[in-house]
Amino acid sequence: MCAGCGILQNNRDWTEGFGQHDNSRLQAHERMAEKRRRIMLVNELLAPGGLKLSDRGGILILSGLTGKSVTVANLAHVWIEADRIGRVPPDPLAF
């Protein structure tokens, strides 16, 4: 899905409910803080491959050292694109 459709769809990512029984009870700032935390953890896994994930206004951007950037719909798609544009495929078991 393109970034435009993702914004229009306005669905939460499945990871946003991790550890929570009722997503609707979370305040917006708490959801944003949790999203920033997840992106920070993902960036630790992506760093050896020369990649970085950033959230720009609700759009996830995966960038490489060469300047190549890809818009990803959600965290599940990060790994597919990381394999494609990274120097080294990410290995979550290496940590």
Walk me through what this model shows.
The chain is α+β, with helices and mostly antiparallel strands and 95 residues long. The chain has 3 helices and 3 strands, in the order ααβββα. The chain has helices at 3-9, 28-46, 75-85, and strands at residues 51-56, 59-64, 69-72. A 3-stranded antiparallel β-sheet has the order 1-2-3. A hairpin with a 2-residue loop joins β1 (51-56) and β2 (59-64). The termini are far apart. Mean pLDDT is 76; it is low at 1-10.
Give the radius of gyration. 14 Å
Largest sheet: 3 strands, antiparallel
Described by the principal axes of the CA atoms, the overall outline is: globular
Which structural class best describes the helix and strand composition? alpha+beta
Strand content: 15-25%
- Number of continuous helical runs: 3
Order of helices and strands: HHEEEH
DSSP, total strands: 3
Helix coverage percent? 25-40%
Strand order of the largest sheet: 1-2-3
Low-confidence stretches: 1-10
Q: How far from one another are the termini?
A: 30 Å
| Average pLDDT for all residues | 76
Give a quick set of tags describing it.
about 100 residues; alpha+beta; about 40% helix
Short description:
This protein has 95 residues and is of the alpha+beta class.
SSE diagram, text form:
Elements (H helix, E strand, L loop, with lengths): L2 H7 L18 H19 L4 E6 L2 E6 L4 E4 L2 H11 L10
Antiparallel strand pairs: 1-2, 2-3
